[in-house]
Amino acid sequence: MALPDEALVTRLRDVRRDLSRHGFYRHTPDELAFGARIAWRNHANCIGRLHWKALEVFDCRSIRNADDIAVQLLQHLRSADANGRIRSQISIFAPVEGDDTPPWIESAQLVRYAGYSDGQGGLQGDPANVELTRTAMQMGWVPPVSRSDFDILPLIIRDKEGRRNLYELPDGSVREVDITHPSIAGLADLKLKWYAVPVVCDMILTIGGIDYPCAPFNGYYMGTEIASRNLLDLPRYNLMDRAADALAVNRADPLYKDRVSTELNHAVLCSFARDNVTITDHHQESDHFIQFIHREKAAGRMPSANWSWIVPPEASATCPVFHQPMQDYHDVPNFYRSSASDGAMLGVSYATEDLNRFQRRFQRVRRRFRSWVRSKS
Fold first, then answer.
1. In 3D, which of 286, 281, 303 has the Cα closest to residue 294?
2. What count of other Cβ atoms lies within 10 Å of the Cβ of residue 76?
3. Do residues 90 and 57 lie in contact, with contact meaning Cβ atoms separated by under 8 Å?
4. 104-105 sheet: strands from edge to edge
5. Residues 6+ apart with CB under 8 A from 107
6. Contacts of 173 (CB under 8 A, 6+ apart)
7. Which of 174, 192, 240, 364 is the most exposed place for a label (fewest CB within 10 A)?
8. Rounded to an integer, what distance in angstroms lies between the CA atom of residue 46 and that of residue 365?
9. The whole model's pTM is what?
10. In the beta sheet, which residues pair with residue 104?
11. Model confidence over 220-250: pLDDT tens digits?
12. In a 3-state reduction of DSSP, which class is residue 340?
């Protein structure tokens, strides 16, 4: 809810005073929640922004101990999974204040599968997590006696002094879905599975110039993220040929990779539906994204979008987003991974306001006038 004019003037005066005195200010709970939702709305790489207003925000700024953060993350995981109905949530911990760096999560996602290297080019599990697995083992984590392709890694949290802290996820805390095909029994021989809730932990939330390096958030999976990317990508599980054999697809067929990808996506969607776990497909989500664009334009905003991230890897040209012109305005609030790369491009972008030529010219003149006034004062 917008502040009344008088309250807004007072709030802006307080923020400017804190910035002048301390170089920092603190968001109110309402500002924090609103900013997190706008950051999701602005993030150009996400196709699932239609329901950005429904993001549940947990204000965890008072939690600064690594042990307590781990407890809250487990609560986040449980809360996000309401008997298979996945809810979009974010837990926001302490911001950066001056030279003090608050605790942050080293793991890219709350749930990760181990990747084992034998040092001679042999790999087992997820190749993306070989280094994280090595770090966890050096810290004392002991893998199962019988290693598999889907061993859940412990969580690694850095405290404010930069020290690593290891936390194993308790048994039963992670919902996993066994991937089987509804009509091709052979796929079950690969013993594939994937976790239900993708909690992203390695992105920094920035709101009004304040950075939150520990702000894990989750949505729910789109089937292609698991089947086409995690399981079939060459740098990941790279299961194309094994899945072809399990699905009885002839590898002499020049289109066998298309058939495997389609059947594996079908298997993932059916498996999640069988277990009553929320998931979406790329056609439905593409339609939702077009609705999101229409709503944003109706509200007078030009939505940011990154074509290479928005367009699904499966049956791309059959999805309406394939034909949609896109531009990333790098607007804030937003999420970023590094101030040296994607974070360096972020800033206030007036291009996201859907204005005509004369309105844009007026806004430009007004901004220059305000800048001149500030420089004189």
1. 303
2. 22
3. yes
4. 104-105, 155-158, 164-167
5. 132, 153, 155, 156, 201, 202
6. 74, 77, 78
7. 364
8. 33
9. 0.90
10. 158
11. 999 999 999 999 999 999 999 999 999 999 9
12. coil
